[in-house]
Amino acid sequence: MKNRIAWTEDGLLFVIRKGKTTNAKISDGTKPIVQTYTFDMRQYELANCGRKITPSEFFALDIKNCLDCPLSGNRNNGVGKCYTHKYMQFSGFLSMLRSIHKTDSIQPELTADMRATAARWSVDSFVRFGTYGEPSLFPIDLVQSLALNASTWSGYTHQARRSWAKPYADFFMASAHSDKEAISLVGWRSFVAYDSTESSEAVQCPASKESSYASNCAKCGLCSGVKGKGTKDVKILIH
User: Fold this and answer.
1) Cβ neighbours, 10 Å, residue 36
2) Is 2 helix (H, G, I), strand (E, B) or coil?
3) pLDDT in tens, 119-151
4) pTM (2 decimals)?
């Protein structure tokens, strides 16, 4: 498809898509945005197996694309705690994977032309890294190209303690679950998801319910790592 590129590597399916979203928290929907996705190829195969499948079946196969994220399906017997595990998102992932299968649009590798296309899409656009899957599995030079062409971007990773993930601190927020954890992640800005029994000194997410949805991710741009907008950590109640 003209608005989507997809390729495989090491048992993973990488997808970059440009299009409008109906999620008002992410964007007002007037302009197309660029979103990235990472799937385990077993999820792709399951989505196209020809029978009805359940969310728990699908998300239980996320070990390669979500790694050891504590909210992943593989860590929680298929019943993950990630916000992407809601039924509407699950339905959207199935639709995308079946569309990719139908159009036979998967490439065996990321090519120079695909890189150029993705970079062109990101110019003056909002880029949402990791709409599904671990965004630090994308090549760092590709992440840099998309981010630095974008008007704003966002990205989150649970891999901030991994030495190989350090370059991604320039562009992504470390996913943390307390101020104490955020402080321990040296060299990163953090996005702190906390529950109502706790408190946090981080800046409140302007696109959250707690802020009465005063903004959206595309306008805000705070969750953009060390090289992005803002210098403080950002917080949100677990949702």
Assistant:
1) 23
2) coil
3) 999 999 999 999 999 999 999 999 999 999 999
4) 0.95
Tokens of 6: 């997809």
Q: Which amino acid is residue 72, in one-letter code?
A: S
Residue type, position 189, single letter: R
Tokens 């302009």 correspond to: 31
The domains of the chain are located at 4-237
Nearest to 99 by CA among 182, 4, 26: 4
CA 17 – CA 6 distance, rounded (Å): 9
- Provide the 3-class DSSP secondary structure of residue 141: helix
Interstrand relation of 156-157 and 173-176 (parallel, antiparallel or unpaired): parallel
196-227 residue pLDDT tens: 888 899 999 999 989 999 999 999 999 999 99
Per-state percent for the chain, helix, strand, coil, to nearest 5:
35, 20, 45
